From TrEMBL:
The keyword Secreted does not apply. Transmembrane segments: none annotated. This is Glyoxalase. The keyword Metal-binding applies.
Length: 130
């Protein structure tokens, strides 16, 4: 058996790199990191402090979702320190989301879509709302 240490990165396809970068930088607060000089457009981001990364890849193929938030669809999750603060931030940014403060998962969850309809889960260890 392999000894897994952590998830290194998640890759998502996007259609419009500038639009995607604005979302991941301005809404989610990810910091762009250096990316090798591939022969296709994209961007890499540091996620948190544990070395995990998000890789955006420009793609014009048929790999994109069309619908709204489907929490059973492929997604990645980031952990935040405060559910309430994350929800307030998304409200200030005008981002639509599905909040599950008392989720069956055992921790509060917020689901959002990026501009290309990739599903992102934002969760916290505990619910700190009212």
């Amino acid at each position: 058996m392999m000894n897994m240490e952590s998830i290194h990165h998640v890759s998502l396809t996007v259609r419009d790199l500038d639009r995607a970068k604005a979302f991941y930088e301005q809404v989610l607060g990810f910091k762009e990191i250096e990316r090798p000089p591939f022969d296709f457009a994209g961007a890499w981001y540091a996620v948190g402090t544990g070395g995990q990364q998000l890789h955006l890849i420009v793609h014009s193929g048929e790999t994109f979702r069309q619908g709204g938030i489907d929490t059973r669809d492929g997604h990645f999750a980031v952990r935040v320190g405060s559910f309430k603060a994350a929800q307030a931030w998304l409200d200030r940014q005008g981002v639509s989301y599905e909040a599950r403060p008392h989720a069956k998962a055992g921790f509060p969850q917020i689901y959002v879509l990026d501009p290309d309809h990739n599903v992102i889960e934002i969760n916290a260890e505990r619910y700190d709302g009212e």
